[in-house]
Amino acid sequence: MKSHEEPKKGFPEQQQPNQPGTETEMNPTPISTPKAGHSGKLQDKVAVITGGDSGIGKAVALLFASEGADVVIVYFNEHEDAAATEKEIKEIGGKAILIPGDLSNPEFCKEVIEQTITSFGKIDILINNAAVQFPQEDPVNITQDQLELTFKINFFAPFYMSQAALKHMKAGSVIINSSSVTAFRGSNHLVDYASTKGALIAFTRSLSLALQERKIRVNAVAPGPIWTPLIPASFPADHVASFGTDVPMGRAGQPNEVAPAYLFLASEDGSYFTGQTLHPNGGEIINT
User: Which of 160, 193, 262, 272 is catalytic?
Assistant: First the structure.
């Protein structure tokens, strides 16, 4: 290693048995505290964030709340993580409600929006962020059940959530989809996951065109390696130990390094962006 190069930084070996994982079992805990905030960019807005209990979703929820938004956190069954996130939001003076459930069920997607309208009377921002991934070194080993579940959570749920939300969205509303660097460069051990993230890019571009006249913007964020519960819940301990060290910056990103991309797209700062994708990925060059 040359003297001016920083050493690559991984994580302690660790693994979790269930998807999408929990922050309370992670070492070190992901950093979700907003880097900035409190400028009122989302004052009086209502944001629904799937997977908002931990990881990128939590960081987005905290940043949005610090900017004045009321937040709806949708999650599966990670009640401890969700409660901790709600507590942090309230500590900074924000409002939040928790809605647990299974996003693979289209009826639950509708219920989320209905509860949002009941609680806050409107929806201005939808963040489709929840996801699962089940690595397989050989794509032949991807079962029908795995393929269907991955698409149900990662792609069908954003589709159904968007359909339900659009019934209540007005001009100036925003939809942001969480894609992935794997949508652009592929992944040999995450073939089904990468396929769902590629579908989200096509969905983002097409939906943005369909909603132009309604003045509703639709964009995506495609993170690279970010330290979230999904990582120890997906990979063996030795893989986790070196996670993110292969990008040019030599380390994985933290959730609060990704959240500002969502704030930019959700606020008036991103008013001339629709159908686009932002790439917080540690320096990997993506030709889009």
Answer: 193
